[in-house]
Specification:
The chain has 15 helices and 13 strands.
């Protein structure tokens, strides 16, 4: 039976492995974290995602999904590992190249290697060239006419909280290092994707992913900048946006405390690094969105300064609503800065995390439920619009002052 090997079992890799295993193929998942491997092999999951745990449990118990710390020979390899940025916001593709190194020894003629990690343009070719150095016995697509190994790039475009559904329903841009590689990868994705599989070249597909998230970042930056202007003019920004969006060609997004997650908060820097002198708009959007977290912190700090001895409850520290993902979370950054500046005066309500990160607990920050927060805190700082906060009345809960960065209680 055909075997699929997925390298990286995080927020994208594990759902992808599960969805493929659901089609009846054998999926071997690989992760460098032994605790993650152990969790998956007992049918459990280490992340929060709707519908995922039931699929993983079923596929593990029926023998279609197994995890380990090492790759195995397979027909298709999917690389879905993190791609953070390093100093000066330069892209770090070391995890992607390490994944390439890990699969090189087990590659056999006929294999397909797909990169799904968000990457700077040209990364798929670097993966190919890296493997070519380690396996000179194999012919690599794009380097020889009769290739043994195909390479393609296919980025995900899913929404946390809907990953399982959107992995199947959303269209995919599939880029090969050659047209034959793109066709081979498209045939693979069509076995579990109901959306349209659109073929292109690898560099274009890499660029498409960066453009999608950079476009969102620029749009959010406009909303965040608008919220600051409205604050200064004492105008309700959500009312302004609601009315402006009645224009048939206007669609302003909602502001927040910044931008988080591993995509929108990171990917624009990959474009900026590729052409620093040609991306002033994208750079400014990144600065606006990063600066919004500082703006929220300063406003919250002023509220604490105006009420000596008061306590502030940070409601939500994940990067978006109804998930447990805290990567690049502006809410977490704000809570951490407040806890550092105001020891003993900060508590956190985070219904989607079993425990707080050590960056907060080391500062003496306690996790409480929202009812307890209403009793213990004077100020509510709503940072994430979790479903658990919707429909609640902050005054009834006991808060005497509210700073709502999401417009949930407007």
């Amino acid at each position: 039976m055909e075997k699929i090997c997925v390298i990286g079992l995080g927020y994208i890799g594990l759902p992808t492995a599960a969805v493929i295993a659901r089609t009846g193929r054998l999926v071997h998942g690989v992760d460098v974290r032994p605790d993650v491997v152990e969790t998956i092999n007992i049918g459990r999951i280490h992340i929060e995602e709707i519908d995922l745990e039931g699929i993983v449990k079923d596929r593990v118990w029926k023998g279609y999904l197994v995890a380990s710390t090492s790759p195995i020979p397979a027909s298709t390899y999917i690389i879905a590992v993190p791609t953070p940025f390093g100093e000066d916001h330069q892209p770090d593709i070391s995890h992607v190249l390490a994944a390439a190194d890990s699969i090189a020894p087990v590659l056999a003629p006929g294999a397909l290697v797909i990169v799904e990690s968000t990457c700077p343009v040209g990364t798929t070719e670097k993966v190919r060239d890296r493997i070519a150095e380690r396996r000179p016995d194999l012919g690599m697509a794009g380097l020889v006419e009769e290739a043994d190994i195909c390479f393609a790039y296919c980025p995900e475009r899913v929404l946390p909280g809907r990953i399982v559904a959107e992995l199947v329903s959303n269209d995919r841009s599939i880029g090969g290092v050659t047209p034959a590689c793109a066709a081979r990868a498209a045939a693979f994705y069509r076995t579990f994707v109901q959306g349209e599989c659109v073929l292109t070249d690898a560099r274009t597909a890499e660029m498409v992913k960066l453009v999608e998230n950079s476009s969102r970042d620029v749009a959010i930056a406009f909303a965040n900048e608008l919220s600051i202007v409205c604050d200064r003019l004492d105008i309700n920004v959500w009312e302004v946006i609601r009315l402006a969006n009645r224009h048939p060609r206007v669609n302003i997004l909602n502001p927040g405390p910044g931008v988080g997650g591993h995509c929108i908060a990171v990917d624009p820097w990959f474009l900026i690094s590729a052409a620093p002198d040609a991306t002033p708009l994208i750079r400014t959007a990144r600065q606006v969105n990063d600066g919004k977290a500082d703006y929220v912190y300063r406003r919250a700090a002023a509220m604490l300064d105006d009420r000596p001895g008061s306590t502030i409850a940070c409601l939500g520290i994940t990067f978006k609503a109804d998930v447990d993902d805290m990567r690049e979370s502006p809410a977490l950054e704000i809570a951490h800065r407040l806890a550092e500046a105001y020891p003993g005066r900060v508590i956190v309500v985070e219904p989607h995390a079993a425990e707080l990160p050590t960056s907060l607990t080391s500062l003496g920050v306690n996790k409480v439920d929202i009812e307890t927060a209403g009793i213990e805190a004077d100020i509510a700082l709503l940072l994430v619009d979790h479903r658990e906060f919707r429909g609640r009345d902050p005054i009834t809960l006991g808060f005497s002052e509210v700073y709502d960065t999401r417009g949930l209680w407007r």
